[in-house]
Amino acid sequence: MIGARPVSSTSEIETLIEMMARLPGLGPRSARRAVLHLIRKRALLLAPLADQMARVAASARECLNCGNVGTAEICPICADEARANGEICVVEDVADLWAMERSGQFKGRYHVLGGTLSALDSVGPEDLSIPRLMDRVESEGVTEVILALNATVDGQTTAHYIADQLEGRVRLSSLAQGVPIGGELDYLDDGTITAALRARKAL
């Protein structure tokens, strides 16, 4: 139709920028730069990235045992019998699990809570995977539970609650030196995590 305004050819690009800007650590400016770089390198980066994201979207799932993210119902860590050494490291989320794994120091298994207890946000034990943790302590012959929770008020509240529930059933310990008050595991370097793990203290 004569005089009709053409549909903007950049609408899909703007939508991609808006979606990228929702990612942690990316604001509108960073998202715009990232998308522009991907478009300039679309054969080398954009197309393979889109294909990989589609595959991950179709296959990603949480481990039924520990809550880790992978592509199978049971993650490789839980499936590795060599890691069934009686130690379980309890973390708040998958990012913390990955941070611990980067250090290469922990050889046991993990348990992802999926958050922390919070009266303010009405998050109770049943809203996390705490009941599942109790079941695993009994069924997997666990001898030590390492509470590697972030040094925040909610993190420490959660650690104390779990410690109370497991008191007398297993050896309990927590990460020690190297983890600053208010610090989060995902932002710590590997050396700090290693030092904290080695110097863990009994609860």
Tell me about this structure:
With 203 residues, this protein is an alpha/beta fold. The protein has 8 helices and 7 strands; from the N terminus they run H-H-H-E-E-H-E-H-E-H-E-H-E-H-E. The protein has 2 domains: 11-59, RecR Domain 1 (Helicase, Ruva Protein, domain 3); 69-202, Dna Topoisomerase Vi A Subunit, Chain: A, domain 2. It has helices at 11-20, 28-40, 42-59, 76-79, 94-103, 130-139, 153-166, 190-198; strands spanning 61-62, 69-70, 87-91, 109-112, 144-147, 171-174, 201-202. The longest helix is centred in the N-terminal third of the chain and has 18 residues, at 42-59. Residues 1-8 have low confidence and may be disordered.
What would the keywords be for this entry?
203 residues; 8 helices; Dna Topoisomerase Vi A Subunit, Chain: A, domain 2; 2 domains; elongated; Helicase, Ruva Protein, domain 3; 5-stranded mixed sheet; alpha/beta; 43% helix
Q: Gist?
A:
By secondary structure, the chain is an alpha/beta fold. It is 43% helix and 11% strand. The chain has 2 domains: 11-59, Helicase, Ruva Protein, domain 3, CATH 1.10.8.420; 69-202, Dna Topoisomerase Vi A Subunit, Chain: A, domain 2 (3-Layer(aba) Sandwich), CATH 3.40.1360.10.
How many structural domains in the coordinates? 2
The computed structural class is alpha/beta
Biggest sheet features: 5 strands, mixed
CATH architecture of the largest domain: 3-Layer(aba) Sandwich
Q: What is CATH's topology name of the largest domain?
A: Dna Topoisomerase Vi A Subunit, Chain: A, domain 2
- How would you describe the shape? elongated
> Taking Cα atoms only, what radius of gyration do you get, to the nearest Å?
22 Å
**Which CATH first-tier class of the largest domain would you pick?**
Alpha Beta
Strand fraction: 5-15%
* Cα end-to-end separation: 76 Å
Please state the average pLDDT score: 87
Number of E-type strands: 7
> What ranges have pLDDT less than 50 throughout 5 or more consecutive residues?
1-8
Strand order of the largest sheet: 4-3-5-6-7
Alpha plus pi helix count: 8
Proportion in helices: 40-55%
Q: Helix-strand pattern, N to C?
A: HHHEEHEHEHEHEHE
